[in-house]
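== Sequence entry ==
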Amino acid sequence: MALPRAVIATASASRGISLPGAVTIADGEEEFSRAVVSLLKDSALRQKTAIAGRQAIETVYDWATLASRYENVYYGLLNN
């Protein structure tokens, strides 16, 4: 997603991450295949998904953002 590229994942693979619109969820071989073909045929959808993924990476999973969250947790633990 950081590249940015459209991503297809199973529900279990995407569990625990919050990226609505950034990942196409497809379970099972047929559903996954249909998702791949759909993205290959629809360049607008592919681009929209790729951009949403990149934006999610920049806002939610940026190193500075994550480091700040961890610092808050650690300082909170130290102060208790």
In short: The mean pLDDT is 90. The CA atoms of residues 4 and 63 lie 17 Å apart. The longest strand covers residues 7-9.
